[in-house]
Amino acid sequence: MKIRVQTEPFDLAAETAALYRDNPRVGAVASFLGITRDVNEGRPVQAMTLEHYPGMTERALERIVREAMARWPLLDATVIHRVGPLAPPEPIVLLAVAGYRWGDRYVDRREQVAAVRRGLPSLRWVVHVPYVGGENDVLADAVTWDALLAEPGPLEFEPVPFSHPLYVLFSSGTTGLPKAIVHCHGGILIEHLKHHGFSWELRPGDRL
């Protein structure tokens, strides 16, 4: 049994693997991950703080785990309880390319992608988006774009505020450090409608 109360993010895959890596009797691992959402009952959430009483929290969690292990034939259990300030959304998926072309020159960005991964402890998956092709267009320990698209399942949509961040683009950095530009869901939706209607003249029933 492992009980941890901490403020920093953790690697779910690593914690799960630790449960069965050295125990050949383990036949399955069930996990539950709570994620800080940026909306609650239709209202945006900017941040939240979880307080705890040191010692008391650990004892309460240990009691819950012991009751579960007495009820079911569990071989082991790990509980990691995060406390302190939590700011949604924490990044869990990174889409990245291995490099790009600048004129006739290939610019390898795999080292920079690795640095970003190390700086995002909450990251759970990296998806490699093929871009330039060739033997260098690969990322280690990443899900391929084709594998991502092949994952079956229904489309699910989560209502979010107009200004909810969608993605961050960075300027080229030719006149100084790259500048982060946050694009929101509402703004990008309007841009797509403009392009579909004005630039491509798409109408109901058309397919792009």
Task: Count the beta strands.
Answer: 13
Q: How much is the average pLDDT?
A: 87
Query: Widest sheet: strand order?
Result: 7-10-11
Taking all Cα atoms into account, the compactness measure Rg is: 22 Å
CATH-defined superfamily of the largest domain: Molybdopterin biosynthesis MoaE subunit
Q: Give the count of structural domains.
A: 3
Order of helices and strands: EHEEEHEEEEEHEEHEEH
Largest sheet, described in full?
3 strands, parallel
Distance linking N and C termini: 53 Å
Helix share of residues?
A: 25-40%
Written account of the structure:
The chain is α/β, with parallel strands linked by helices. The protein has three domains: 2-86, Aldehyde Oxidoreductase, domain 3, CATH 3.90.1170; 91-155, no CATH class; 162-208, no CATH class. Helices cover 26% and strands 24% of the residues. The protein is built from five helices and 13 strands. It has helices at 12-20, 56-71, 110-118, 145-150, 185-199, and strands at 2-6, 39-40, 43-44, 48-50, 78-82, 84-86, 93-96, 99-102, 105-108, 125-128, 143-144, 165-170, 180-184. The chain has a three-stranded parallel beta sheet. Strand 2 and strand 3 form a beta hairpin. It is globular. It starts with a strand and ends in a 9-residue tail after the last helix.
